[in-house]
Design a protein that fits this description.
single chain; 350 residues; alpha+beta; SH3 type barrels; Alpha-Beta Plaits; 4 domains; 3-stranded antiparallel beta sheet; 8 strands; flat
Length: 350
């Protein structure tokens, strides 16, 4: 019986440290859950604090174990070797991504919901963290890109307002240039583009390459507008009896008197559906909406702070009353926006 009591006493101190460790982790989790921060560094800070608590707790636990001092020293030495090896192997990549993440966020190169291109990758940003960036691709799948990769390669950011879309077509020298330019501009206007313009990008041995550009009002329909522009270019050129085939191939079929222009098909009435981008970039659209609401919440907090500062300077009761009413209205708006953000975040996790 005395032996059991002595063992329990020796385990009392390590057990109490383990309980304190669990309590500290739960408190850390609860604080960040109630904090409702609108910054992207919340999870990183929470995880960093948790890691420090666990690290200190493990060391304290080892030091209080009822074992010989020499064995404690060996365990601590082994732990130090493992940690040093882990840091040495991962420090280059981890630190590189960390620095690149800080640089991307501080420079504000792009935001959630923006359409970006990095080398062969193109999609809308759904999530930004200190180590990586998540984008939703054209096929609606997700890809996580290390921040070091983004910092090391040229990044193309598509404008949110009035982006330019374009397409190219190669036609023969026998077709008048002015007729082609007018047809391409007509196709751009039919697509819904504004201020279209045409560049002649190449004078080849057998054909001329024309590139039509135009400004798109709704950048959320970027990909579908490019597809529609290509379709309208084909339809308009065929309507004007201009063949879109290789000039060398066209010379071969002239003897047979054939034309590679499809017959006109009567269009049926089609009920308008959602744009493909609404289905493809569903998470990106939700993330962008959450980001906008977070910006709105930050603006409301700034307005509230200004009103509190003004309140100290006011002397008339009527002015003080108006000030308090304005603060109450902002508080109500803040609570609505916070609830909306929580609902959207819960929906995006599903």
């Amino acid at each position: 019986m005395d032996a059991i009591i002595s063992v329990l006493k020796s385990l009392l101190e390590p057990g109490s440290i383990l309980v304190v460790l669990i309590i500290l982790l739960l408190i850390n989790f609860w604080i960040f859950k109630k904090l409702k921060t609108t910054q992207n560094y919340g999870n990183v800070l929470k995880n960093s604090i948790s890691a420090c608590i666990i690290f200190i707790g493990v060391i304290a636990l080892i030091l209080t174990l009822p074992i010989e001092q020499s064995l404690k020293g060996q365990i601590l030495s082994f732990l130090a070797i493992v940690i040093s090896a882990g840091i040495a192997l991962s420090s280059t990549t981890v630190l590189g991504n960390l620095i690149a993440g800080i640089m991307n966020n501080s420079m504000k190169r792009f935001r959630i919901g923006d359409l970006i291109s990095v080398k062969d990758l193109k999609g809308r940003v759904t999530k930004k963290s200190i180590f990586h960036t998540e984008i939703q691709l054209e096929d609606s799948n997700f890809m996580t890109i290390p921040n070091l990769y983004i910092a090391s390669n040229p990044l193309k950011l598509t404008r949110k307002k009035d982006p330019v879309i374009s397409t190219s077509v190669s036609l023969g020298y026998d077709i008048p240039r002015t007729q082609i330019e007018e047809s391409l501009k007509e196709a751009a206007l039919l697509t819904g583009l504004t201020d279209p313009y045409v560049y002649i990008t190449e004078l080849g041995d057998f054909s001329v390459t024309y590139k039509i550009h135009g400004f798109l009002k709704d950048s959320n329909k970027y990909f579908s507008s490019i597809s529609l522009l290509n379709a309208n270019v084909m339809d308009i050129l065929h309507k004007k009896r201009i063949e879109i085939v290789s000039p060398t191939f066209m010379n071969q079929i002239n003897a047979n008197g054939k034309e590679f222009i499809p017959k006109v098909v009567v269009k049926k009435h089609v009920v308008e559906k959602k744009a493909p981008e609404d289905l493809i970039f569903d998470k990106a659209n939700k993330s962008e909406e959450i980001e906008k609401k977070k910006d709105q919440l930050d603006n409301l907090k700034e307005q509230e702070e200004l009103l509190h500062k003004e309140q100290k300077k006011l002397k008339k009761e009527s002015d003080i009353k108006k000030n308090k009413e304005s603060i109450e209205q902002i508080d109500k708006l803040k609570s609505k926006v916070e609830k909306s953000i929580e609902q959207n975040e819960d929906e995006s996790k599903k």
